[in-house]
Design brief:
Oligomer: single chain
GO molecular function: 8-oxo-7,8-dihydroguanine DNA N-glycosylase activity; damaged DNA binding; DNA-(apurinic or apyrimidinic site) endonuclease activity; lyase activity; zinc ion binding
Largest sheet: 4 strands, antiparallel
Catalytic activity: Hydrolysis of DNA containing ring-opened 7-methylguanine residues, releasing 2,6-diamino-4-hydroxy-5-(N-methyl)formamidopyrimidine
Keywords: DNA damage, DNA repair, DNA-binding, Glycosidase, Hydrolase, Lyase, Metal-binding, Multifunctional enzyme, Zinc, Zinc-finger
CATH topology of the largest domain: N-terminal domain of MutM-like DNA repair proteins
Number of domains: 2
Strand content: 15-25%
Helix content: 25-40%
GO biological process, one term: base-excision repair
Distance between the termini: 26 Å
Number of strands: 10
Order of helices and strands: HEEEEEEEEHHHHHHEEH
Strand order of the largest sheet: 1-6-7-5
CATH architecture of the largest domain: Alpha-Beta Barrel
Pfam families: Fapy_DNA_glyco (PF01149), H2TH (PF06831), zf-FPG_IleRS (PF06827)
Length: 290
């Protein structure tokens, strides 16, 4: 799932390549992706793309006062197309959800724009056309941005939340921008179990957590901002130390990275770095070890 660093990098990429261009047409290929009807998608045609920004894990494109807001969900992505097909796409079950056509920079140059796609059969990518980003329910409920939270504020947020730490830092209404991958990375850097109770963190553990949030996300941003959209996924994978590395050695201590699986997701962690050497029970119905 694209998280704070990737969405911020996509916004930066669009500010460089697309802002200042006129949207000539928007084609909807995946009917399930569009979540609003007023204003219609057609209202964007002929308007200038004037801004691109991030709100949590949402990409917000300002189109002359209207907002094209995108949540890429688990398997969505944005693809820049230097030679965009001019024929409207056929609605169907393929990965294409939405195509945005932009006016060419110079006369005679090939049409350009970008596609929003989503791999797999489970479709969660969501597109909104709104007059204000706050009209999007997911944005109106966002907690403070992860990069804007200081240590004291983070402590208050964690102590207000009962339950497992992993769930707390991925709850977008509590703190915005962190998802499954970077939460694994943050907890590894902080040397904290994903199943430790959020409201029972000591002052020293909270300080470690805050430092890990800031360094992990800012390091990822430094690697990714300035990259082309096509290279961002690979750059993200290259920087991961525990997430999606089950069975490989921990780069910090050399222990084997382990996994806990759930119905539709999983987490990865290092027992030596995070749980005092104790593997977490990977049984969905069991009481997980802390």
């Amino acid at each position: 799932m694209p998280e704070l660093p990737e969405v911020e990098a996509l916004a930066a990429f669009l500010r460089e390549t697309a802002v200042g261009r006129v949207v000539t047409r928007v084609d909807l290929a995946g009917v399930q992706a569009i979540k609003t009807f007023d204003p219609p998608l057609s209202a964007l045609g002929g308007l200038e793309l004037t801004g691109a920004s991030r709100r949590g894990k949402f990409l917000d494109l300002d189109v002359s006062g209207l907002h094209l807001v995108v949540h890429l969900a688990r398997a969505g992505w944005l693809h820049w197309r230097p030679n965009l097909p001019t024929a409207p796409p056929k609605p169907g079950k393929g990965p294409l959800a939405l195509r945005v056509h932009l006016a060419p920079v110079d006369d005679g140059t090939p049409p350009e724009g970008f596609d929003l796609t989503e791999a797999g059969t489970r479709k969660g990518l969501a597109v909104y056309v709104v007059r204000s980003p706050d009209d999007v329910p997911g944005i109106s409920k966002l907690g403070p941005d992860a990069l804007a939270v200081d240590a004291e504020h983070l402590g208050r947020l964690m102590r207000s939340r009962k339950g497992q730490l992993k769930g707390a830092i991925t709850d977008q209404t509590l703190i915005a921008g962190i998802g499954n991958a970077y939460s694994d990375e943050i907890l590894h850097v902080a040397r904290l179990s994903p199943f430790k109770s959020a409201d029972r963190l000591t002052d020293e553990e909270l300080l470690r957590l805050h430092t890990a949030v800031q360094t992990t996300l800012r390091d990822a941003l430094a690697r990714q901002v300035g990259q082309k959209a096509a290279t961002l996924k690979g750059e993200k994978r290259s920087g991961l130390q525990v997430h999606a590395r089950t069975g490989l050695p921990c780069p910090v201590c050399g222990d084997t990275v382990r996994e806990v699986s759930f119905a539709d997701t999983s987490l990865q962690y290092c027992p030596t770095c995070q749980t005092g050497g104790k593997p977490l029970a990977d049984r969905r119905m069991s009481k997980l070890l802390r």
